[in-house]
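Entry 14: structure prediction run for HTH araC/xylS-type domain-containing protein. Input pasted below.
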Amino acid sequence: MKKKLPYNGTEYYGFNMTDADFIVRKIIFQSETIKTSRMSVQFFFIESGSGKIQINNQEYSLKKGSVLWLFSYHVYQIVEVEEAIQAITFELSLNVLMLATLTTRSVEQHMNFFEYWDTPALDCSKNEFAYLQTIFTHALNESEQQERLYDLSLLADLYQVIVWFERTARRNWIREKDMRDLSSKTLMYLHFHFRETLTLDQTAEKFKSTPQTINRGLKKLTGKTFGDILSEVRINNALAMLNFDELGIAFIADFVGYYSVPSFNKQFKRITGYSPTEIKKIKPTQKQVNSFRFQNSLPFEIYTYINQHYSEPITVQTVAKYFYSSPTKIDQIILAEFAMTFNALVEYNRMLFARSLLLSSSKKISEVAEACGYQSIRTFNRHFLTFWGNTPSKYKELITASKKGQ
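Run finished. Output tokens:
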């Protein structure tokens, strides 16, 4: 009969927690790291230092008081170390995380949390720093000394970290929701009114807000300011119009909101890397210059991708593949951010560009339809009528008549 080996761990509700299930340690990062992912759950508490970390191609700042919560689907890499980063980490199996929720109700609340929160990094306040440092330091000491019932003590520390992270994330999400909604509305407003003399002050007044709030919201969600986004919307429209040979550069510049051709040329070159004249010489199949992207937010990266590829037979499946995601997830992200489905957002962009091309070009309606991604002119006419309230030909006729009457 084999001798029974001593068990190094504790049993809770039929689950055996061992030393390998919950590891606490101190780490120092003094330089960049390679991309890493682990089949575990990790918490990082930054005690000191500063730098930047990239998580699933999104960049986050690291500083004293930063807290990270990473899962197995997070691929992360320290991309910059300004000052040596000292951190205490919890690394645990998913079983331990589920154990820490204990009740069915708390499991449901915990999992619902991840349906809307996809930011793995938070910053604590000065008052919270001492609280969190005490928890992580206590867990580190318990892990090193391993006195009796130390594993229960570690679970207690884990409880406190989870509660702090989820409560903080929920408060941030509620505060940011109104700002995100305002930013989405502002972005769409810029797409409708880019031809006008738009200013930050006027737009803030339009939305009964302040210039600082408008700019801060756009910057947080897109990584760009009001002025940067307006310029890119205008240049994106100009890029579409340059496909029409009969449209001169001066006409396009005026149509998209620039009253000075040199100013238009300067912005065009800054954003695309080419001059408008150079773009006109490039064959349509060779044009790969419309590549500017929003920087910080996945919803707006998806939006920009749609904005760049509206003339192609784009589907939620192709976009999901591009962003290494699922069609359902892409649709959920778009619906949460823009209050419309993926297909509706594609249609929205196509209709905006269709109107611009219709009003600025003498091309046939069938050619405008094709330039906006429609294979059937009947489908294009039907969608245009639904969106704008008139058929393309009638819409152009009414606008032309309106201008003549002014």
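Notes: Residues 150-193 form the longest helix (44 residues). Will compare against the previous run tomorrow.
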